Amino acid sequence: MTAFEPKKSLLNPKFEGYKLAVMDAEDAVMRHSLPYHATQATSSGKTPLSFQEMQSRITHNHLSIDAETNQAVYVDSEHRIILTEFNGDTPSYRILYEMPLPVQSEATATIHREYPSAMFIGSTLVIASDGDGSLYVLSVKNEGLSTPVGTYVLASEGRNTPFKIHYSHRSSPTSVVTVISSKSSASLPKESSRRPGGSSLFDVRAIRINLLSLGPNNTEREMDVIWTRQGEDIPIYTPYVPSLDSHILVGGSNYPDPTLGISTPYVPSADEIAPIPRANENPEKSDDTVNPPPPPYSWTQTSDAVTIAIPLPSATSKDNIRVLFSPKSLTVQVNYFASSSTPIPRYSSKELWDTMSPSSSFWTWDKEAERAYGVLTLHMEKQNEGTRWMQVFATSGDNDDVPETLDPSELYKISESLEKYTASLRDGSDSSGLGLGAGLPSLASGEIDDEVDASVGRQAYLTWVAASNGSTPPWFDPREQVPFTLLATTLPGLKEEVHDLSLVVKNNLDGLVFGLEAVDGEKPVWTHASTYPAVAFVLASKRDTRFTYLVPGKAILAFESAGQSRGGNLYIYRRPSATKDKWAKQSILKVDDGQGGSLLGVGAITGKDGELRILCLLERELVTIKGI
Questions:
Q1: Using one digit for the tens of pLDDT, what is the confidence trace for 113-127?
Q2: Cα angle at 61 between 59 and 63, to 5 degrees?
């Protein structure tokens, strides 16, 4: 159900990269000063925020757009709801409503307020949260201030509970359903949590607003809760699918149905975990598992060549090295007597993964006499230019299955790894302190930055919830939930007919666009629709990305947060013109010139010319971008 299966025909292993396509920034970007400044500051409590709460605040989109009228709303630093309208490319602003400022007290010092926010529920109604437990329903007038036609509170244990608005839709002409989340008073014990030390829990609720009950003289009332789910993370995305009358909850945890009584998965203790022996491995003999040697070589490739770096003792004479290139095989013979701790690779007519051109291939020997090891470098020209080798040799074995070094500058660190390894054997030190013995060759572990890897997308689960009562739809089996890495969702503000429900999911280095195919009463299917090759790889280098969104059929947009006096960029990665194109286009635009402040929200409107406009809400500016 939740598996995202790629179509091989839509993958492109021969993709080379993104070429810069320069856009005219003066024509594409327009900056407008905000008369009512936005802010990302909230009143802090005496207890620290959990990781989930901090992550939710960083990715909170402060801007809401009505796709039908091209109006936008946000909450300014004084808790005023600001309505933004467009006459052509020029925005105008007016105060819609001024929410009461929350009062800080000892009783609320341990409670973390949410960001105040506003959201359209049609062209004439806006709902707004003050971040302190109150929800206001406002009727949008043609001019002047609005007065609340409904006020609701989320009460728990005798006090209001701050909540975050995620999604809202009209379930009928007279009813609105809104999905909100709040931190639960309960927490998950350490033994039941995926996170070390236990975890906070978060309640996800759907509330109903009866439009017939609204009026200017309504008193404050408690929310009408339709259903509640609970999970270890705050949802990322909670859209409603009309054809299935169900919500999707996408978040860093699942949100189990409390009526099903699903037991928590058993988590083994450290003493119960034992390694699974590889083929021909003796688990009783642990010397090599505790102190594994580095790989016998490192390698990298371009579109037309493969380069191999083999570490050898510096005392090796060039006359003792014999290398023979043939179209389908490689021979490397080194006549050097070494100790058992020094691996000397020897290959005799070893079949290659693909063919090469012997006449254009060569080798060099760099002794590096001041070090214990030098490097024998083999440069092999590919016969089939553009073909990406999965490994050097056709068959693996005897430590020959070595991962590719993606950064060529790291290629020659193989000699340093071998030197550290042999030194650790001599002095009996633990090689793990050298970066060895982590289950990966040292060369590969030097390339894999866990922090960067974790920042590319977010691990997510997908839970289906029946909108009417919060039950589990009959076609959804919660046991089939499989975590995936979410790279992007659809840009807010796009008209419904412009896009289907789409998610961009990480698949190795690529970003795969999956569209939902849903038919009444039938099991929905996520279908691989298109591919943005290597987009996960390029996004890994964007360390300050705040929002990543998909414009279906056009591009993936990555927005930097900016802040202080440093302007932020918008990175545009366009879809290749054809599936097997080796190159695609990318563009970079400066969103902020250093004067606007941090990026707080983004969305889309449609200009009078029918062209898409990107709105970027900064603390002191509203930026419009066209030409995407």
A1: 889 999 998 888 999
A2: 165
